[in-house]
């Protein structure tokens, strides 16, 4: 009898495991099909002007993505912050921009977003001269953790959304890291469709990263700036910010990088965005 109970439980668990993706897909389709709340539309118009630039089909798709994102990803206030719908929709709209073109899930590793009123402090080990490692406190506007959390400063989220032409967007930056971290730590090489895609991506991005560092070392300015030269992961995240906010400028200065990002995101924002 006990063996039959165990077998029944095992079969039940297997059936749930097989059916769960189907149920999740159905639930998401229902969420996307729901009317987008009028109050949320007003928030997008007021807080996220980049949405109005999207072609109509992409605006519609973005709204569906927002509905699923907010149904599945808790946004939790920290340091006394009370999270409002204005904050939730503003965060979600920008977080879903990198999902517009390619079907790659809704940041499957992400469990929650932690939202702070402003910059927050973290401690990180720093290598000092002589091989000494010491913890150093730093104020950050955002951070993406492999453990399934994104930390954001609401002040910086709001500022990034308000100016869609400056190439600086902390939400896009940190969610690019989330895409990069799908298979582990961020290294500037998110999962791609094939080995050939990976080889091309690695060659293009490494060459551009090296060129950027060389330019900066010689005092030559670049659209991507100093922070993109600190690590390949930051190069990808900063380039993603420019891809969505200053696509024409990125295509002009770094055409090969733009082409790789267009393939990855399956979008061509230079055709419909400013910058």
From TrEMBL:
Against InterPro entries, the record matches this protein to: MetalloPept_cat_dom_sf, MtfA_fam, MtfA_N
Gene Ontology, cellular component aspect: cytosol
Q: Name one GO molecular function term.
A: aminopeptidase activity
* Name of a matching Pfam family: Peptidase_M90
Superkingdom, according to UniProt?
Bacteria
Q: What is this protein called?
A: Zinc-dependent peptidase
Q: Which organism is it from?
A: Inhella gelatinilytica
